[in-house]
């Protein structure tokens, strides 16, 4: 155990020094520093003071407020643009080998550094507005793929989410961008901004659910799913919600989602399109007490019905309960099934045999005594009943159970 914790600590330390990180300081919007570091090796940095405006073609600096400056440094290369008190811009350019004059080669160097700053996320507010005015949402979506820094995408994303109308293909494109992020908490926030109107389209909803499943943090996925589940959930999306929840690392988070699903009208009617996949998902949960609670909730949804469970659902519930590690938990489910009661001889046989393999005599005898007055008295069921009764070791309990079917 100590070795495990030691290895984890070493891994985190190595990750801390090897993974690029953004260090960001602002005095206000027109003065600040943006630096990316990887371990002890400096990578990129931007320093600025004053308002900086790009040319419309993103190839040059159109304006810096008087007395302001913009400096970009990447390893050994440097570009610095300074504005005098009259607003005239002068440049200091260094390509790692020599200083460059502002000739054609120098202008190409300036343009290349500007493109690096754009990918870094700089100039975002101004560029996002300009791009949106020219090309609308499609242009913003196309631009997002260029931005490497998560925070640098925010101005573009903000405009997209404020757009009056977004088509299904645009929403799917937006979800593809969100899914490519390495910022899990940021992804969760963006996914939470999708309205029910946007998720009304089936293709958008399926992509959204897929993105939720990629968060790999069950408490985040759970919160999103809990807000998504409503009475309009179709069978295919019901299955998609289950597919996400089935991968949660926390059984308690799974339980919360499965409980919410039992509140759907179709589920309460024990519609097989909803109940069957739900039962299969419940059967995969680890702790039997959680499975028991969920099955009891499921069985309660049909307590006001005059008919019994559908055949496939009865058998599935019985099979799940038979695998519980706790016989007491199994007993609670069997009691509920007796109360429905089974409607075919096959169901009765399965239930009676399941009771017969319980470990403790008191569990078997209590359940068999409840079965006796409810089951049909035909030769097949009486024979199966007596076989289960023979597994009871105590003479007194055995005698009571046998007399119940005489």
Give keywords.
406 residues, alpha+beta, 7-stranded antiparallel sheet, two-stranded antiparallel ribbon, disordered N terminus
Please render the helix and strand layout as text:
Elements: H1 2-18, E1 21-28, E2 31-38, E3 41-49, E4 52-54, E5 61-64, E6 69-74, E7 77-83, E8 89-94, E9 99-100, H2 104-120, H3 124-144, H4 154-162, H5 168-179, H6 184-192, H7 202-213, H8 218-228, H9 235-245, H10 251-261, H11 265-268, H12 272-283, H13 288-300, H14 311-322, H15 327-339, H16 345-356, H17 361-371, H18 379-389, H19 395-403
Antiparallel strand pairs: 1-2, 2-3, 3-6, 4-5, 6-7, 7-8, 8-9
Helix pairs in contact: 3-4, 3-5, 5-7, 7-9, 8-10, 9-12, 10-13, 12-14, 13-15, 14-15, 14-16, 15-17, 16-18, 17-19
Low-confidence stretches: 1-21
- List SSEs in N-to-C order: HEEEEEEEEEHHHHHHHHHHHHHHHHHH
Q: How much helix is in the residues?
A: 55-70%
Category by helix and strand content: alpha+beta
Describe the protein's architecture and organization.
- The protein is α+β, with helices and mostly antiparallel strands and about 400 residues long.
- Among the domains are: about 20-120, no CATH class; about 180-260, no CATH class.
- The protein has helices spanning about 1-20, 105-120, 125-145, 155-160, 170-180, 185-190, 200-215, 220-230, 235-245, 250-260, 265-270, 270-285, 290-300, 310-320, 325-340, 345-355, 360-370, 380-390, 395-405, and strands at about 20-30, 30-40, 40-50, 50-55, 60-65, 70-75, 75-85, 90-95, 100.
- The strands form two sheets. The protein has a seven-stranded antiparallel sheet, covered by helices on one side.
- Strand 2 (about 30-40) and strand 3 form a beta hairpin.
- The longest helix is centred in the first third of the chain and has 21 residues, at about 125-145.
- It is rod-shaped, with a radius of gyration of 33 Å.
């Amino acid at each position: 155990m100590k070795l495990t914790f030691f290895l984890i600590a070493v891994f985190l330390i190595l990750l801390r020094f090897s993974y690029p990180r953004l260090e960001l300081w602002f005095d206000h919007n027109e003065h600040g520093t943006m630096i990316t570091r990887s371990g002890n090796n400096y990578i990129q940095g931007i320093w600025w003071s004053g308002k900086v405006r790009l040319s419309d073609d993103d190839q040059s600096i159109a304006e810096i407020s008087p007395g302001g400056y913009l400096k970009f440094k990447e390893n050994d290369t440097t570009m610095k643009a300074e504005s005098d008190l009259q607003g005239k811009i002068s440049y200091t350019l260094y390509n790692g080998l020599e200083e460059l004059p502002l000739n054609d080669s120098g202008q190409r160097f300036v343009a290349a550094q500007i493109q690096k700053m754009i990918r870094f996320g700089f100039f975002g507010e101004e560029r996002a507005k300009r791009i949106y005015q020219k090309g609308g949402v499609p242009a913003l979506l196309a631009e997002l793929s260029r931005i490497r820094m998560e925070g640098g995408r925010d101005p573009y994303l903000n405009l997209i989410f404020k757009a009056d109308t977004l088509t299904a293909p645009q929403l799917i494109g937006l979800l593809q961008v969100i899914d490519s992020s390495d910022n899990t908490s940021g992804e969760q926030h963006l996914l939470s901004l999708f309205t029910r109107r946007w998720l009304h389209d089936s293709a958008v909803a399926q992509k959204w659910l897929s993105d939720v499943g990629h968060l790999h943090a069950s408490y985040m996925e759970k919160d999103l799913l809990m807000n998504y589940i409503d009475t309009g959930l179709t069978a295919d999306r019901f299955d998609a919600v289950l597919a996400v929840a089935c991968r949660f690392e926390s059984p308690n988070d799974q339980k919360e989602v499965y409980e919410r699903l039992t509140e759907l009208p179709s589920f309460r009617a024990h519609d097989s399109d909803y109940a069957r996949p739900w039962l299969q998902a419940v059967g995969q949960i680890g702790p039997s007490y959680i499975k028991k609670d969920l099955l009891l909730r499921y069985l309660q949804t049909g307590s006001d019905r005059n008919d019994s469970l559908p055949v496939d659902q009865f058998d599935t519930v019985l099979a799940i309960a038979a695998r519980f590690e706790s016989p007491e938990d199994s007993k609670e489910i069997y009691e509920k099934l007796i109360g429905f009661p089974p409607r075919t001889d096959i169901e009765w046989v399965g239930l009676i045999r399941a009771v017969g393999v319980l470990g403790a005599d008191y569990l078997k005898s209590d359940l068999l005594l409840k079965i006796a007055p409810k089951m049909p008295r035909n030769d097949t069921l009486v024979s199966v009943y007596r076989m289960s009764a023979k597994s009871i070791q105590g003479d007194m309990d055995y005698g009571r159970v046998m007399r119940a079917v005489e």
